[in-house]
Amino acid sequence: MKAYFIDRYGKQNGRIGDVPEHVPGAHDVLIEVHAASVNVLDSKIRSGEFKLILPYSFPLVLGNDCAGVVIEVGAAVKGFKPGDAVYARVPEERIGTFAERIAVEQNAVALKPANLSMEQAAAIPLVALTAWQALVDIARLQKGQKVLIHAGSGGVGTIAIQLAKHLGAVVATTTGTANVEWVKALGADVVIDYKQQNFERELRDYDVVLNSLGTDVLENSLKVLKPGGQLISISGPPTAEFAKAQGLAWPLRQVMRLLSLSIRRKARKQDIRYSFLFMRANGAQLQEITTLIEAGEISPVLDRTFAFESAGEALSYVEQGRAKGKVIVQIK
User: Fold this and answer.
1) Which InterPro entries does the UniProt entry name for this protein (predicted)?
2) Which pLDDT tens digits describe the chain residue by residue (332 residues)?
3) What does the alpha-carbon distance between residue 116 and residue 126 come to, in Å, rounded to a whole number?
4) Which one-letter DSSP state was computed for residue 220?
5) How far apart are CA 20 and CA 304, in angstroms?
6) 45: number of CA atoms within 13 Å, CB side?
7) Which residues in the chain are classed under CATH 3.40.50.720?
């Protein structure tokens, strides 16, 4: 089958070629991929940024989430059948959605929202599960609480704003001048134009911050949180707890502990809890997100769609950091 893969780590690596067909295991569904989304994570994996955490072998097919149709199911699969339209964030150890077909463990899969196209559905899994696990699982965001979501026009930001509003929170976000009105339309109550304002001077007494940006933004986010608040970062630095959950060796756990030591100390001084989130595949949560999408509470935001043959261009476009919403690769 055709797939977009890398033979080694490096920013400009990647090509389309033939790879072996997937043979579904007893608990797998084999999905004919119609569309896949391009995430910053794909770029980081390609460059080798996660090679200590996720030790992949080559050739490595990229791609972390997709939408498509089930064409075969394993003997132990109960909830899906051939012909089902589905979507999934595939487990991190079995990535590879930039391909014509992929076998995915059934617990990572959910039925596609009936009101979305394949391209729209492919835009959802990774970013929506990230937002869900940050705001629902970790933050336990409550009605009336105040949350700051950085990079509101990005893939995670566009969904996190909508989810936080659904949960009843007061939502602030940061974005560029051109996107101010656009993120307000998504539901943001307070918008900080980072080109003209400093969010740490404008905002106070927030309960939660969801960070997807760099170290300076992370540390300045402490200034807007009240005692007892939570700082959740999906861009690092990782913690020893994360390393343990990943099953990493003791030396790597200590490396992660040191990497996050500074921000954890600063947070603790202000009675703030710091958490690093590396989202995980979860079909049950994705099914809950399906319910919200079909009810009109959450809508995908698409920036551009690329042909399969242009998957490399799609990755380069995402690396520029200017996409409004999600970038899609149309496989079928």
Assistant:
1) ADH-like_N, ER, GroES-like_sf, NAD(P)-bd_dom_sf, Quin_OxRdtase/zeta-crystal_CS, YIM1/Zinc_Alcohol_DH_Fams
2) 999 999 999 988 899 999 999 999 999 999 999 999 999 999 999 999 988 888 899 999 999 999 999 999 999 999 999 999 999 999 999 999 999 999 999 999 999 999 999 999 999 999 999 999 999 999 999 999 999 999 999 999 999 999 999 999 999 999 999 999 999 999 999 999 999 999 999 999 999 999 999 999 999 999 999 999 999 999 989 999 999 988 888 998 999 999 999 999 999 999 999 999 999 999 999 999 999 999 999 999 999 999 999 999 999 999 998 889 999 999 99
3) 16
4) H
5) 29
6) 26
7) 127-276
Which amino acid would we find at residue 86?
Answer: V
Question: What is the pTM assigned to this prediction?
Answer: 0.96
- Tokens representing 57 are 């072998």
As a CATH number, domain 2-124+300-330 is 3.90.180.10
Q: According to CATH, where is 3.90.180.10 located in the chain? A: 2-124+300-330
Can you tell me the distance from the alpha carbon of 319 to that of 137, in angstroms, rounded to the nearest whole number? Answer: 29
Non-local (6+) Cβ contacts of 271 within 8 A are 227, 228
DSSP annotation of 154: S
Architecture per CATH, domain 127-276, reads as: 3-Layer(aba) Sandwich (3.40)
